[in-house]
Amino acid sequence: MSAFVVLEDGTVFGGTSVGAPGFAFGEAVFTTAMTGYQETVTDPSYAAQIVCFTAPMVGNYGVAAGRSESAKPHAVAVVMREARGPEWTDWLHDRGIPALSGVDTRALVLHLRDRGAMRGAVVADADGSDVAEALDAVCAQPSMNGAALAARVSTSSL
């Protein structure tokens, strides 16, 4: 499998890479917002998180510079049921954000809802990627509990 999400409890969800290739480690969370996908990815409150969108289609109204919540993305990866529009997926790719489409987001959200947010990884278009290897790497990541992220996402001056 060359594109997947793996959670620290060993659960794996397959998908298709539609963003930047590579690995992204973070806390797997979900959002129930029906709009505002660009705003979500650039929102500092999603720093160091893998965002799973519950909306069935993401990207259908494109992207615009004025919609970003900050100057850069803070989410480390994006997981969607169905990515729409090349403008959105190109935007993710250009910003180095691994993103997956075709994921059973309903099952992923139910899993996170029942077990809580947990560490995970998105592996996108990484040839030879091994689920067991990715899981070992996820478990080696520090916990998000108590992580001091405010300094990473705050501006240095007013």
Task: Provide a short characterization of the protein structure.
It is built from five helices and eight strands; from the N terminus they run E-E-E-E-H-E-E-H-E-H-E-H-H. The protein is α/β, with parallel strands linked by helices.
Strands ordered across the widest β-sheet = 2-1-8-4-5-6-7-3
Shape: globular
Q: Can you count the beta strands?
A: 8
Low-confidence parts lasting 5 or more residues at pLDDT below 50?
Answer: none
Average pLDDT metric: 91
- Biggest β-sheet strands, sense, barrel: 8 strands, mixed
Separation of the first and last Cα atoms: 46 Å
Helix and strand run: EEEEHEEHEHEHH
Taken as a percent bin, the fraction of beta residues is: 15-25%
Radius of gyration: 15 Å
How are the secondary structure elements laid out?
Layout: E1 3-7, E2 12-14, E3 16-17, E4 22-31, H1 37-42, E5 49-53, E6 77-79, H2 86-94, E7 99-101, H3 105-115, E8 118-124, H4 131-140, H5 150-153
Report what the structure shows:
The protein is an alpha/beta fold and 158 residues long. The chain is 25% helix and 24% strand. The chain has helices at 37-42, 86-94, 105-115, 131-140, 150-153, and strands spanning 3-7, 12-14, 16-17, 22-31, 49-53, 77-79, 99-101, 118-124. An 8-stranded mixed β-sheet has the order 2-1-8-4-5-6-7-3. The longest helix has 11 residues, at 105-115. The model has no long low-confidence stretch (mean pLDDT 91).
